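Lab manual, section 2.4: Encoding a predicted structure.

Procedure: take the sequence of the chain (564 residues), apply the prediction step described in section 2.3, and record the output as structure tokens. A sample record is shown.
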Amino acid sequence: MNFRILLLATTLLTTHCTTPQTEQRKQGLLSQNGMVVSAHTLASEAGKEILQSGGNAFDAAVVTHFVLAVVYPQAGNIGGGGFAVFRFSNGDTGSLDFREKAPLAASTNMYLDENGEVIQGKSLTGHLAVGVPGSVDGLYNLHSKYGQLPWSTLIQPAIDLAKNGHAINETLAQELNRFKNKFLEVNQRETVYTKVNNWQKGDTLINADLAKTLSTIQTQGSEGFYSGWVAEALSKESKKGNGLITLEDLKKYKSKWRQPLVGTYKNRKIITMAPPSAGGVTLLQMLQGSEQFDFKKSGHNSTATIHQMIEIERRGYADRATYLGDPDYVEIPLDKLLSSDYNKEKFSDIDLTKATPSEHIKEGQVEVIESMETTHFSILDSEGNAVAITTTLNSYFGSKVVIEGAGFFLNNEMNDFSMKSGVPNQFGLISTTVNSIEPEKRMLSSMTPTIVENNDRIEMILGTPGGSTIITSVYQTILNMIDHNMTMQEAVDAPKFHSQWLPDKVYFEEGKFDQTVLDSLQQMGHSIQLRESLGKLECIYVYEDGTIEGAPDITRNESAAAGF
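Recorded output:
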């Protein structure tokens, strides 16, 4: 089967170079039969090739994921985890949780010093920060249940790219250079990702070790990762760096099928991820709160609209901190959190004239949120099957640990646990004992892969990276589509802002909002901080006539849509 991937790796051809547009409306790539939108041209093209070759959305998801592990190593991965939400053409829905787990030897206070204080950086960098990876098991199970083409066929494009190399883009060159010293410090050796002279756009990255790992996964499936030489290399690496992951941890890992959460917003059906994702619960809560306001009337990104949305967002995040964790370990009052009565009362005290101080919503203290990196891809096949997958290493390049001889990064997802009740993680998110560390427990996540129906037909497939900002970026994009009648590309490109209860600040994309609006918000009591960008949405919209719009976030990332 000719995937033309090597040609693409050399020439970086893409089908989104020419963007169709209607009069005064900006649209993404339009197609009729299928669409893949991801964070990298080569991954989107590989997924499209599979769709054209008779594969379905689940087949395309496998090839897209593994190609991202090669060409987008800052977040694409086999050493991380994630969530998949899907909808079949007949309307049936489902989801798969392949979130990482705490190792068997993990303990509640493992990141605290003798005085009970959090040891800074211990859960972020190095071998002790790593949770048991779930990505390979997740994608393998997704394919085993719903895929059509042979597994080996789907892994081959990633093997070819790792073995023969690919020309890196500007984004990857910059990130590899930025973390070069950290890679050397953590691994105590040169890796394929370090270069004596700085990386440049167009340089060829060859990763023979990763090609060998992928070849093993190709022939042995998930067993090729969770047992055998790859597992031994991983556990040896962990032991060398005083980490906790053992062969037993890898052997015991299993992804988990879960029922997605389903809610509504203005006659749309919202299908999203259940806990241990906090994203779905918080998104549905915020949408319920939004039903009380007329954003269309108040106008997109007006002072009134932004103020109301900020107040909705901070109340949603306060519940995130209080109630949410791994449902296999804690009782989550989902019926309460998603009930219309609860949310009507929850959002009823919003003052239209001034900001509510966060400490009046719930007590707590956080000063800052840090940067983050995850990746999302959205897929729709010719039969109408939709897949939304968000997957992550957590920080850029995760723990910075590269498995010697296997060529891939390990995550630093242990930071997503509550290391101490009330103490924030790198995203400024705090939680209580519901998200405390326990052996084999899954850490709470903000990843929010989401699918939207309109009159029983698929309408949107959405998702984004961004740590704590994921939920608000998906929320705002849905409102942009439904309340402000944007095209999907306009909704993706639109300026984003973020509030998460604590810290008591609102983050705005720099240079993208009217200064008079920002001044008015400050006068209302909002503390404003500027960020270069928020979110990297990769979305799909389906028009009533069946036309598919793929909307990559090319203003914030070197993303790409590929359709046919």
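Check your result against the sample. Residues 5-257+372-435 form one domain.
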